[in-house]
Amino acid sequence: MNILKKLMQFQELNENEAQEFARLLFSDELAAADKTALLVAMKMKQESAKELTAITHYLINSNYPVQPRLAGSMCVCGTGGDGVGSFNISTTVSFIVASAGVKVLKHGNKGITSKSGGVDLLDALGIAITPIEAVARRMEVVNLAFLSAMNTYPMMRVLQPIRQLIPLPTLFNLMGPMIHPYALDYQMMGVFDASKVALVAQTLFNLGRKRALVIHGAGGMDEASLAGENLIYEINAQDGVRHYSLEAKDYGLKSADNAALKGGTSAENKEITLAILGCEDKSARRDVVLLNAGLALYIAEKAPTVAEGIALALSIIERGEALELLRFLQE
Fold it and tell me: What is the rounded distance in angstroms from the CA atom of residue 304 to the CA atom of residue 238?
């Protein structure tokens, strides 16, 4: 297999080879052991932005030859794989951001490297996943739709057993949020590995996002953290990619270790989300939601600065709008 040989020699695949790499992983031509070898070899070599862009395009085009677009749409999602075990921060944030008028198409999955993924939390809350064909109709009623990666990309089921054989995150942890079925205008994406942030940022730029943030949180989180400096790459279709760092304390939020953000089962995470949106929990858990919601509102052009985004997020929680949206979706 020439592609495997090339990867094992730490050589970059060209666009056609990268797409052939993806095709082989999802075909019946290779045994599970060979597919595992391909994934491990790519991980050892480390993906390039060119390879990641080509593989992402292949997966999207295989399922959505004409990718749908919804003006002003956004996804807030992390890669997973950070090992922190935090509660479902990005799902909680989605209720706030949608309440601010952003069309949030939250792409998520069941937990692979955690006890409770976004889809698990929604199951516990009694909120239904939106079928891809119903998204446009849903957006006429409410600004929030939850999409399951297993429904939008059923081909991923082929790789699920193979990914579980590999005890480390693979390129598919990076790609999960990027293979959104919609051509998004805005995206906020957390990344578990600081060495991959620039790579992901360049790939999102290549995919044509209008504005996006890629975040590696202090202490290794795939969300903005309260524990120190968060590495941020900001993408702008007009101006390119720039990077900087920020800390929660810069915005009047208290510093806290990542241990203070621990979640648990989907039932436990449900209670955490309800307590935050219901103004009952004003601890570090609320602060990390405010920080991430503020960043999302800034990049979605609902606030001119991160500070004003955080203030807007707080007012949405205090007015009960995010909880009201959650209850509406439950009904």
Answer: 17
